[in-house]
């Protein structure tokens, strides 16, 4: 399970097993989506599989995740998502009404994200060899002229912005799966981020890096960017927006909110000269209303993430071995 959690074990699996087997330069960036040039047009291409348990949770379902997750991966390259494929893997015995609800959620999420489901597939596996419904989506989108967004472009001096409160998706899944109550219902933040990225690009095409902090949360995403760019990241822990119910749930369960999954948030590495304008544009968008600057790129400790704590000290924010809560997407 650790190899599927988005942490160090996942990275080792990709680096030492899959990437050598596939052997091409397109995979070298290891970003959320890959930028391609086809017939003179710059495209982004991405694929993702969804195995979340339970299938329905406060704020969404596996159907919403399947659309929003791939749309967001394309958006992290600055691409405007255009078309998705959608493949369902169904376990024998799954109630067709459940499959229907999920299919309806996929369709509604696609309309909300402004994409079309252009092709698909269905497979059925024996009872006991699945978990109801698994979904794979792949997507393509157009990258606007002059946009070059990738992890390697993070540069000392960049400010790090998060688009809103963190940890809501992971805690929403946990509350349903484990039957926990935290005094107030926490709903998943799942949402398509293409419109928010468009608003940011309207301010400047020179966004260096975007990443949606899904599996492994903000900490994992920052570590991946620091490693890819060879820069250090200084995180201002007090500035990270953690909702009170998330903080309470994490305190109760001994979890760090920085490692809890999100499905409707992004991290942006923005040149300092553009940061104020980008932050204002984000806050003017419904999905970025609570955006905040949470850190910066530095020349010190290259390839590492260090947090300045609320008490003035510092601590290293490591890449996790696996996922605190598996199968959250």
Automatic annotation (TrEMBL):
Chain ranges passing through the membrane: none
Domain PurM-like C-terminal: 156-300
Sequence ranges assigned to domain PurM-like N-terminal in this UniProt record: 36-143
Highest taxon listed in the record's lineage: Bacteria
InterPro entries on file: HypE, PurM-like_C_dom, PurM-like_C_sf, PurM-like_N, PurM-like_N_sf
A GO BP annotation: protein maturation
Similarity-based family: Belongs to the HypE family.
Protein name: Hydrogenase expression/formation protein HypE
Organism of origin: Actinacidiphila oryziradicis
Gene: hypE
């Amino acid at each position: 399970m650790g190899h599927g959690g988005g942490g160090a074990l996942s990275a080792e699996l990709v680096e030492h097993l899959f990437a050598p087997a596939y052997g091409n330069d397109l995979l070298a960036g290891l970003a959320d989506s890959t930028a391609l040039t086809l017939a003179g047009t710059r495209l982004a291409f991405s694929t993702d599989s969804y195995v979340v348990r339970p299938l329905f949770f406060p704020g969404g379902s596996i159907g919403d995740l399947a659309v929003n997750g791939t749309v967001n991966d394309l958006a992290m390259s600055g691409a405007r998502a255009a078309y998705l494929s959608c493949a369902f893997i169904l376990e024998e015995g799954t109630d067709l009404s459940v499959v229907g609800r999920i299919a309806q959620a996929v369709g509604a999420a696609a309309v909300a994200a402004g994409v079309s489901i252009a092709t698909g597939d269905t497979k059925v596996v024996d009872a006991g060899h699945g978990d109801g419904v698994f979904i794979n989506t792949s997507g393509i989108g157009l990258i606007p002229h002059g946009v070059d967004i990738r992890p390697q472009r993070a540069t000392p001096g960049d400010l790090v912005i998060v688009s809103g409160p963190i940890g809501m998706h992971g805690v929403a899944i946990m509350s349903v799966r484990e039957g926990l109550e935290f005094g107030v219902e926490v709903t998943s933040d799942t949402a398509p981020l293409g419109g928010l990225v468009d608003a940011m690009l309207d301010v400047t095409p020179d966004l260096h890096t975007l990443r949606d902090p899904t599996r492994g949360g903000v900490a994992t995403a920052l570590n991946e960017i620091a490693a890819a760019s060879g820069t250090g990241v200084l995180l201002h822990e007090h500035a990270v927006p953690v909702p009170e119910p998330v903080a309470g749930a994490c305190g109760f369960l001994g979890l760090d909110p920085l490692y809890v999954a999100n499905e409707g948030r992004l991290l942006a590495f923005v040149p300092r000269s553009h940061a104020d304008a980008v932050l204002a544009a984000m806050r003017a968008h419904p999905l970025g209303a609570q955006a905040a600057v949470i850190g910066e790129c530095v020349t010190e400790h290259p390839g590492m993430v260090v947090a300045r704590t609320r008490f003035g000290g510092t601590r290293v924010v490591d890449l996790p071995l696996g996922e605190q809560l598996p199968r959250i997407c």
